[in-house]
Structures are given as C-alpha cells and as structure tokens.
C-alpha cells in the first residue's frame, strides 16, 4: 500500500529458498514475479509514471468471468480533484507469456502502461475499499469511509447500491454471494441443543443434562472430541455470555 505498488510472489518457495533467487515453482526464490503501479521504486520510471496510490483489494478476476486473469483493484488516491482527492477502481492486463511467466523488457518497467477499465464516479475513501468482478461482468465496489456498496456495469451504470447508516460507520470490503450459496451448507448452529436457532441458558441446561445422563448429541460437542463433558459446557457458556 505505502509503496503505491502491487507485487506477485511465489508462495511455493520454502523458508530456505525465500531469501534466495532460486527455487519454487517459478525458480526465482523470493524475488518478485511481477510488480506494477510505481516503477520509480525500482528505477524504471519517475513520479509521472506512477499510477497507484494507497491501493487496496488487489485480486485476480476469476476464470469464466469477463476479464478473467486480469487484475482489479481499488486505488484510494487516484486523482487530486475534490477536497481530499478521488478514488477509482482499475482493471489492467498483466504481461504473461504462454507458460504463465510475467514478462519485462530490458530497461523498461513491467507493463502495462495503463489500465483498460476504470470506475471513477464520486467515490473516495482514505482507507480500505474493495472491487470484485461479478460473473455477469458487473463490478461490486466498496467505498469504506462512506459505508457505501455499489454494483456497476461495464459502462459505469449503477444497478444496485446500499449505504449503512449510523455514526462512525465504515465497511472495509464487501463481496457478493449467489442466492444458492448456502444451499449445500449445514445451517445447524453448534451449541443450539434445543434447535431454536438461539444460543442461551436453555442450551446450557440441556447440555448439562446430557452430560449428567452420559448421553451424546453432536450439537453439544463444542470441541469436536466425540465426548460431552464439562469442557463443552464451559465453551458453550462462554459463547452465551458473549452473545
């Protein structure tokens, strides 16, 4: 963030290989595989070549999504207009060869020279922020300081937005889930012995009774050791006290 640059590294390196220039899937050890946004950091440009400033939420656009394989990010201090400046969401294409290696020319910075898509309409946050491409080509954007989430089309049209009300409210970053996301997820609440979707004293009493009767219910097995005992009671009691 404070270098106004993004980096790609090889997570396959071992701790022994990481301080070196060899090893890992790409054979470069702990060296950067790719960097972009501020080439003056490695003496391949000047301040006029810098594109990023205090950026957040760098991520690859997933396979099958419009722009798949490209990078998308939230650039916090994108321009100097406005009282504090303006933020922007940027999408850019990294230079990758047919074998998946990032390429760079001698005496030149890593490409590209600029981004291929941006959204710059009335968003600014000094901290955090997020941007995620959607399967239909829209982009979900989070303006942290304003607690504002918006979904925009490729042409910049806002098709959905939400602002969380309240004093000192922020939203660091939001993501969107499909309507069927939870269909195959077990929705049972661990510790909810009586099945009322609430953790309270009634569940503690029910768990105590199970322990005293030497009976087993997986909903009360808080530490997943296939046994109900005082440790499960203490864990559940702590959860209830915190709720």
TrEMBL record:
Domain (Dockerin): residue spans on this chain: 186-243
Protein name as it appears in the record: Dockerin domain-containing protein
PROSITE patterns xrefs: DOCKERIN, EF_HAND_1
Biological-process GO terms, alphabetical: polysaccharide catabolic process
InterPro entries: Dockerin_dom, Dockerin_dom_sf, EF_Hand_1_Ca_BS
